[in-house]
Amino acid sequence: MEITVVGTGYVGLVTGVCFAEVGYNVTCFDIDEQKISTLSKGRCPIYEPGLEEMLKKNLEEGRLHFTADLKSAFATMDFIFITVGTPENEDGSANLGYLEAAVADIGASLTRNAVIVIKSTVPVGTNERIYQMLKEIIPDHIQVKVVSNPEFLREGSGILDTFHADRIVIGTDDREAGSAVASIYEPFGRPNIQTDIRSAELIKYASNAFLATKISFINEVANLCEHTGANIEDVAKGMGMDERIGSQFLKAGIGYGGSCFPKDTKALEKLTDYYNYDFKILRSVIEVNSRQKQQLFLKAKEMFGSLQGKRTAVLGLAFKPHTDDIREAPAIELIAQLFEEQADISVYDPAAVGKVEELFGSRLYYADSVDMAIKGADVVFIMTEWPQITQYDLGRYPLLMREPVLFDGRNCYDLAEAEAAGLTYISVGRRAVNMNQKLENLGFQV
Ligand SMILES: NC(=O)c1ccc[n+]([C@@H]2O[C@H](COP(=O)([O-])OP(=O)(O)OC[C@H]3O[C@@H](n4cnc5c(N)ncnc54)[C@H](O)[C@@H]3O)[C@@H](O)[C@H]2O)c1
């Protein structure tokens, strides 16, 4: 069985490598020739735990191939998985330009029957439109089928999630094609659910919107904790012990980011507009999140009045730990705001520095360690809960900083320990520690 995966980003590369790992002959195609050249040498252009090792192994064993050549990618393939990006348009809708370009390439290159499997996250109705598009391009003697197979892996644990997926969603109106796609996943031994195409498309958006809702909900509760004097860690724990609620995604912080939740919630909102349906919860979830992303910056501004000339350190740049992805990362928004304030900014991240450097160039100081980043700082912001940051010794902040003020957007430290370390410590949904009178006046629970 010959499989092509179109797009070698976080989803496509992990999918292609994992398919090769279970024994399929896989060709990964991308229009980015530089990426293909890097991958062909066994090097992984993204940070994803375990991926480079598995990539090298499958390249050496001859099951994995990379190409930027249309003919060798599509001409004789049985299954073509499309995993190209569907980023956000300016109006919040999903940009389907990359998908349509990929489909046009496939249509122009196919020489035999194939099943086109759409893994990219796409609005309801897109798979049907893609099928119509293909029918117009390909010659009559070639038969194509289109199957929706949305992806649920999480960056940072992509391989683990592929091998231990909670479910494989397969949406098609053609039972035979659906079963064929299900059989590709058999070596992974995970449960699958087969639905009509539109339901599969919506399962993906509804799942992400629900997870985003949990995050915005707990962040609202955290904000309420700050007003009432309750502690969000205890509240979330107490809530999560109820099996109907579940403990996952009840971690208060500075809002969700990344390449999926922000764009998918907005694309779903656009879809509801299209159908003239007012999805009230969804609108609130989006609004709460953008407000939450401002919280630490606003608190710092309140505390210092102006941040001009202040030496600031931002710890953690990726939107979450174990990835180098900075798309919609709260840290990036914070850095932009600190710039506007004319603060001095040093940053640290174990994996994402390269991507941040592409954005901000020499305007930031890129530290190799937490020590280097916080040395001489007046204020530190923790934005990503990398182990290198959560396990960093609290005692070193007062030792290395000029003024030990720590804003922790991920609640990494125990309040009593922060208090004992003599830090001014402001986290999310918990009482502020070692605050001065000015902050008490601002309504912080001291
Ligand atoms: N990143 C995630 O964690 C995740 C999880 C689940 C679902 N998804 C969805 O999967 C899709 C892909 O996401 P991603 O994060 O892997 O994207 P990405 O931006 O990391 O990668 C997309 C890749 O597609 C390539 N590409 C663009 N146009 C192409 C074309 N015409 N032909 C061939 N290649 C082309 C790009 O060069 C790039 O390498 C999106 O729809 C996303 O919403 C992503």
Structure description:
By secondary structure, the protein is an alpha/beta fold. The protein has 3 domains: 2-195, Rossmann fold (3-Layer(aba) Sandwich), CATH 3.40.50.720; 203-291, N-(1-d-carboxylethyl)-l-norvaline Dehydrogenase, domain 2; 294-441, Rossmann fold. It is built from 20 helices and 14 strands. The chain has helices spanning 10-21, 33-40, 51-60, 70-74, 97-109, 126-137, 158-163, 175-184, 197-228, 232-240, 261-274, 280-292, 295-304, 330-340, 353-360, 370-374, 387-390, 396-400, 415-420, 437-441; strands at residues 2-6, 25-29, 64-67, 79-82, 114-118, 144-148, 168-171, 192-195, 311-315, 344-348, 365-366, 379-382, 405-408, 424-426. The strands form 3 sheets. A 6-stranded parallel beta sheet has the order 3-2-1-4-5-6, sandwiched between helices. The protein has a 6-stranded parallel beta sheet with strand order 11-10-9-12-13-14. Strand 4 (79-82), helix 5 and strand 5 (114-118) form a beta-alpha-beta unit. Helix 11 (261-274) runs antiparallel to helix 12 (280-292). The longest helix has 32 residues, at 197-228. The chain starts with a strand and ends in a 5-residue tail after the last helix. The chain binds nicotinamide-adenine-dinucleotide. Residues 6-12, 29-32, 35, 83-86, 98, 101-102, 105, 120-121, 151, 153, 155, 259-260 line the site of nicotinamide-adenine-dinucleotide. Nicotinamide-adenine-dinucleotide is lined by residues 6-12, 29-32, 35, 83-86, 98, 101-102, 105, 120-121, 151, 153, 155, 259-260.
